[in-house]
Automatic annotation (TrEMBL):
UniProt entry keywords in alphabetical sequence: Cell membrane, Membrane, Transmembrane, Transmembrane helix, Transport
Keyword Ribosomal protein listed: no
Organism: Anabaena azotica FACHB-119
Matching PANTHER family: MACROLIDE-EFFLUX PROTEIN, MAJOR FACILITATOR SUPERFAMILY (MFS) PROFILE DOMAIN-CONTAINING PROTEIN
First-listed, main subcellular location of the protein, grouped into a coarse class: membrane
Name the UniProt record assigns to this protein: MFS transporter
Lineage: Bacteria, Bacillati, Cyanobacteriota, Cyanophyceae, Nostocales
PROSITE patterns according to UniProt: MFS
UniProt keyword GTP-binding present: no
Amino acid sequence: MFPTEPAAVNNGFGALLKNRGFMLLWIGQLVSQLADKVFFVLMIALLEVYPPPPGVAQNSMYSTLMVVFTIPAILFGSAGGIFVDRLPKKLIMVGSDIVRGLLTLCLPLLPREFVILLILAFAISSVTQFFAPAEQAAIPLLVKRENLLAANALFSSTMMGALIVGFAIGEPILSWAKSLMGETYGQELVVGGLYILSALIMQPIKFTEQENQKEQWSNAHPWAEFTESIRYLKKNRLVLNAMLQLTTLYCVFAALTVLTIQLAEEFGLKEKQFGFFLAAAGVGMVLGAGILGHWGENFHGKPLPLIGFLLIALVLGVFTFTHNLALALGLCAVLGIGAALIGVPMQTVIQQQTPPNMHGKVFGFQNHAVNIALSAPLAITGPLTDALGLRTVLTTMSVVVVVVGVWAWKNTRRVLQDVI
């Protein structure tokens, strides 16, 4: 399907297309991401046919399901990364997909009770916490150092593409599956099949993991490895700073997820059409990641994260004076480009600067920190908007983004100019 060895020099996406292992990982990740989004749509759809427990309203069922999806990320984010360093990456990724696929296929066989649905959703979300850090740790094992920027650009763009496409086509796919294969098991068969397909795609990948990585897992205690990752981040300011910038970026997007509901009303749209703004930002991220991936070598030494933060701050500030829907969607696309200028280089820096025996622990801690940090803007953005108004919140966010961007760049600009 693809040649075995990647190109010796960096020529953007061209080198990656010749790397058989990376292409299998990328396609498998794309299918798995799509399965995740369609599975979430499936869970929401099943709530309509699952009877609510006594005294529980329908809206409370939706909220409870979302909380159950989030809790494993907070509980097991770092633990997943520790096991990634203890076990082969392919075993974790392929095994995670198979387990999630089988759990999904078990849905039609289980009693239609809300508690059982929550338990299964919790289990699948927990398994995902092992897949995510293994995927990030696998990229440096398959891609040469000079091609990491293009690899992360491709992963970032397809991840956002799967987010947009998955939620958009989830309902039509499930409706088609129900009509073609029956209401009893049709939907679950499609979603479970996507997970199994992802596992089959990644099965031929061959990793060259260091033997000492495989030996250490029988000796070290998990808690000791967790504290080791914290000590490592304290010593390595570059990796810690990159992680803080990524966390800030995700927090901005979490707040925007809440704010876009009110923005939709401001522009005369229905509340449920808030996804237009997020989709426009996603298109911008795909565009920005594509530019970095193909012409990344032309940006060496440029302050990409600082430019990204300034673009995001500019968009947030201008938004308060915008009344045209087309202009607002264009601004969201610019915001997405700014997000790509932060996310892709910073993820690349973390991969380049982290030794192989720390990959899983660092990426697990990163996922853990991001998921915990996301809970704050999701919780406070709505009440703050009600109390202070949309314009005040957007202006405040713009100022905070500028301060964080300038502070982060001043702290690490000399090192980053050599790395990015």
